[in-house]
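Justification of computing resources. Each target in the renewal requires a structure prediction run like the one illustrated here; the chain below, 344 residues long, is used simply to show the kind of job we budget for.
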Amino acid sequence: MHETCAVVNPMIMAAVEPLKRESEGLYEAVSELPRKRTEASGQLRAFMLRNAYECAGGEDWQRIAPVCAAVELELCSMYYENRVYDEKGGKRDLAQISKSIMAAKLTRDLAERLVKQSGEITARDRSKIVELLNQADITFETGEYLDVFENTFARMGGASFSDMISCCERRIYGINAAYFERICEIGGLLAGAPKEETGALENFGRQLGMGYQIMNDVADFVPSFEGHTTSEKEVNDTHRDIMHGELTLPGIYTLHHGSKEETDRLKSVFERGMQTPESELIQISQDMINNGSINFAIKQAKKFGREARKQLRGFPKERRKTLSEMAVVLDSNRYYNSLRKLAS
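Resulting structure tokens:
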């Protein structure tokens, strides 16, 4: 990934740089997430695009590096918008919300500009990539709507286990898996892969994206004192989902399979939201470990990881290797390890 970041990161920041001429304040507002992500050197989507391209037989990946940078700017746009809905990084005042909305719009526009200025890619492919990014935007907005208004305890609290899981999986697809799917499709497109291979890459992206989001949802139950932070998750964002009344797999499992005491504790958090003391949130995490909720979610993430790897079997081993290895983190990672430590 370091080689990918070394090439792509300067392109990301160069795309944002012209905003300085318009306004230093605007530049600071828009460049915050791109700068943070480039400093962390964790451009997962750019890396995935590169490897989908190479898995499909593409050569000289640096030819598509501007598109790799574009998918990272598109992700920044999604994150800026999500901040408004989920209060990621803490509650914001009106001015901060306004800046997030502006930053979301501008990073999306800059992503499209990068694609359109990619001279080594045909005009037809550039047009198709912009169309795929637009599709990703629409699906992401749908997922955000589900996340905020439908996939909630207030809306779904009386639903069956299977109905809750179905709604949650539609939300997961919208906010994450669909974008993974589109990125892998772009990789196949740029490599000139046949329809069957591009379809396999899309399926890989979708399955991997489902697993990654479940892993992220599990990480929400790692207490803040563990200090786990990345360019995609702040330490203080822990337990944010349940405090917003959102249903993720561990919460759904507890509601239907936990003891009455455990279920009542979780419902209390849904009702009190951000007023819930940290000690009670830690108890919720312990409940979910003890009643199997965390283990249930981890098993689902691992299942999606296995399904993702299956999609690549039609590709030569040497070409699929790096892409396939991206699913390994779904089997074991520091979030799972921290939760196991909490149980001991």
